[in-house]
Amino acid sequence: MEYRDYRLQVAAIDGYFGGNISILKKLPDSPHHILARLRFIHRSAHLVDGAWDPSNNSWKDGVEPVPFADDFFELNPAIQLHYQEVDIRVYGGLAYSILIRPKDQERFSFSGGSEIIFNDPLFNFLQKPVRIYGAWDIKMKARPKYLPSHSLMAGLKFGEKQGIGLSIYAFYYSGYDYFSAYYKSRLNKFGLGFFLDFNP
C-alpha cells in the first residue's frame, strides 16, 4: 500500500500576505465611534495533491491550475454605534487590484455589511453572560460580470462582549468559491462552528 493512502490530501490552497493600518476615533459628545482600515493583500491560488487523479494521470473534474494572482488595496470605513440595548457596526469597502490574473476579472470590487450584538444577556452559563449576535456581509466582484457573494452568521457569545470567550455560531454562504483556483465557480454552504475570541 502506498503512502498516499495514509496522508491527508488537500485540493486547493490560497496563499495570503500583506498588512493594514487602522484608525479608531470617538465622535465628540457621543458614545459612537468611527473607524477605518486600509490594507494591502497579495493572494495566489494553487491546486495540490487532492485535486490530482493519479489513476488517470489528470486533474479531477477537468479543472486545471490557473495562474491566479490578485494584489489589491482595500479601504473599509465604518461606524460603530453604541446603544443601551444593542451595539451595531455598519461598514463599506472599496478595493482596487493593481495586479490581477487571469484578465477576465474587473479590478474594482465592493463590499458592505453590518454586525449587531445584544447587550442584555440571554442567560448565564458557568457564571458567564451569554449574548446573541449576528452579522451580514456582501461582496461584489466581477468574474467577469459583477455578482454578489453573501455571508450570514448568527451565534452566541459566552463571556463579556469585548473579552475572552467562546462563540458558537451558524453560518450560511452563497457566492463565489472560497478558493481562487475555482474563482469562477459559485457555491452555497451552511455550517456550524465555534471559535475562541481573544479580544482584550
Number of DSSP E strands: 12
Distance between the termini: 50 Å
Q: What structural category characterises the helix and strand content?
A: mainly beta
Total domains: 1
What oligomeric assembly is this protein in? single chain
Bin the strand percentage.
Answer: over 45%
Mean pLDDT level:
91
What does the largest sheet look like? 10 strands, antiparallel
Radius of gyration: 20 Å
* pLDDT < 50 runs, ≥5 residues: none
Question: How does the SSE layout of this entry go?
Answer:
Layout lengths: L11 E15 L6 E15 L4 E2 L4 E2 L9 E14 L3 E16 L6 E11 L4 E3 L2 E15 L3 E13 L5 E13 L9 E13 L2
Can you walk me through this structure?
- 0% of the residues lie in helices and 66% in strands.
- It is an all-beta fold.
- The chain has one domain.
- The strands form two sheets. Strands 1, 2, 5, 6, 7, 8, 9, 10, 11 and 12 form a ten-stranded antiparallel beta sheet that branches.
